[in-house]
Amino acid sequence: MLDMAKNSEIADGIERRTTADFVFERLHEDIVSLKILPGSKLSEVEVARRFGVSRQPVRDAFARLGNQDLLVIRPQKATEVRSFSMEQISHARFVRLAVELEVIRCACIDPDETVAPAIEINLELQRAAIESEHSDRFHDLDYDFHRLICEYGRRPLAFETIKECKQKIDRLCVLSLTRDSRATTLVEDHCELIKAIHDGSVDEALIVARRHLERLDETISLIHKTHAEYFE
Amino acid sequence: MLDMAKNSEIADGIERRTTADFVFERLHEDIVSLKILPGSKLSEVEVARRFGVSRQPVRDAFARLGNQDLLVIRPQKATEVRSFSMEQISHARFVRLAVELEVIRCACIDPDETVAPAIEINLELQRAAIESEHSDRFHDLDYDFHRLICEYGRRPLAFETIKECKQKIDRLCVLSLTRDSRATTLVEDHCELIKAIHDGSVDEALIVARRHLERLDETISLIHKTHAEYFE
DNA sequence: ATTTGGAGACTAGTATACAAGCGCTGTCAA
DNA sequence: TTGACAGCGCTTGTATACTAGTCTCCAAAT
User: Which residues of A touch B157 (CB under 8 A)?
Assistant: First the structure.
């Protein structure tokens, strides 16, 4: 309870970390990992008591989470964890697809070849990860892969946008257990994509990318059916 | 000073409006319209005094503006209005382009024809607006046009994303005075775009859209040269 | 002349107290 | 039995006091 005060002091190596930061990160993690389920009510005072802080930093943290669409805050009403909306999920996926496609187009036209080696290494590691069946490891590598693609297309900031979309969808996909079974297919997609970009065949690359991201859709609609209670 | 308290009470027709909302909106407007210039320092107490409220709602408003990248807030340091960054502007334009292209692709493949009449009317009004040289009116219609395109492609939420990007760029473009001279060209773009979509020629539509959004680039780089002091 | 140290006036972060709206629940009357 | 209404406990919103960093400027020492 009180030990967090110490944490917030010791961890300020580069930037000053506030209590609000701490509360925010903890809550964020709990919400994204579904330790706190959609629809749950969160009281400022209750959370404040739990963390041993005053309401103020909790309030700040709530506001930030609200801005990320994770909480719905209404004056004088209990703020609650936002439940999933098929529209929003679909929109996040749409934006991600749009941005990713455009990044790939950039990569085809004017690639930053200094990034190419890193991609090759990443692909190798992906293959290794699925052989040794480290699905967490693969997940990290997949994340890196899409980041590298953005750098390859000289659009590093695009990954920030992609990341935001990804987070919204990932929160949902925590509910899915079929993740790793698809890993092999996903790696194949990645390889095909890189090959197409190397060959400079824009259209082919875009088709592969589209197919790659569409694989999520079945997972999403499956979850929609099996976990309807978390949808609004 | 105190009259705003009344304002916040009378305006809550649909949803409860808080003092923080009020402060946020006022500041937002002032920042976006460049009444408050990039680099300006904003003090919580000073703003609170100016609006005749306590620091708390101002703090909330600051946090929100910070989340929109309009303010840079650092612990124990004066928060200031974020100056423009060419990277961010360019990124916003990139995301907007990506999303808009994908929306148009949707509109070509599976358009919501119930929206078509509204678009026709909008185009007519655009022509009327530039003839009577109402540039503000044209700006509103342009806004509506891009909203309608999203509905036409059955992606209404996409406009929210486009709007966010637009806002970031528009804040910069307030500095430009050459807006209206281009109106005629822009309307022509709009018409061409709609025609291409109607004809179902996806590639043509995408080319037109690309060209349309690229027109912003010269304006942006012009401002970058003439107003370097507002860039970081 | 340059540097350094410290006072004071800033900054934002936090804690606490109070105000005010919403919703439930229990009671009382029809 | 059922409906309405009052009151209470919950929620968040706001105000204020206090803490603690940061900056600036000026004076004193080198």
Answer: 87-88, 91, 94
The answer to whether the CB atoms of B91 and A155 lie below 8 A apart is yes
Q: What is the pTM of this model?
A: 0.88
Residue with tokens 């990804």: A166
Residues of chain A below pLDDT 70: 1-16, 177-181
Min distance B169 CA to chain A CA atoms (Å): 16
If DSSP states are collapsed to H, E and C, what string results for A107-164? HHHCCCHHHHHHHHHHHHHHHHHHHCCCHHHHHHHHHHHHHHHHHHCCCCCHHHHHHH
Nearest to A98 among B74, B88, B98 (CB): B98
Distance, CA of B81 to CA of A83 (rounded, Å): 34
State which H helix or E strand residue B5 sits in.
helix B3-10
pLDDT for residue B229:
86
CB contact under 8 A, B94 and A64: no
B54 CB neighbours strand C below 7 A: no
Q: What's the CA gap between B206 and B103, in Å, rounded? A: 10
Cα angle B182, B186, B189; round to 5: 145
Which nucleotides of chain D have an atom under 7 angstroms from any protein CB? 10-17, 20-23
CB atoms A158 and B102 under 8 Å: no
Angstrom distances, CA of residue B185 to CA of A107, B182, B206: 30, 5, 17
| pLDDT the model gives residue B12 | 31
Query: Which two structure tokens, joined as six digits, stand for A81?
Result: 């964890």
Residue linked to tokens 């340091």? B77
What DSSP line would sit under chain A, residue for residue? Answer: --HHHHHHHHT-SSS---HHHHHHHHHHHHHHTTSS-TT-EE-HHHHHHHHTS-HHHHHHHHHHHHHTTSEE--TTS-EEEPPB-HHHHHHHHHHHHHHHHHHHHHHHHS--GGGHHHHHHHHHHHHHHHHTT-HHHHHHHHHHHHHHHHHHTT-TTHHHHHHHHHHHHHHHHTT-S-TGGGHHHHHHHHHHHHHHHHHT-HHHHHHHHHHHHHHHHHHHHHHHHHTGGGB-
Contacts of B22 (CB under 8 A, 6+ apart): B4, B7, B8, B51, B57
pLDDT digit string, tens, across residues A144-157: 999 999 999 999 99
Strand C interface, A 15-54, C-beta < 7 A: 18-20, 53-54
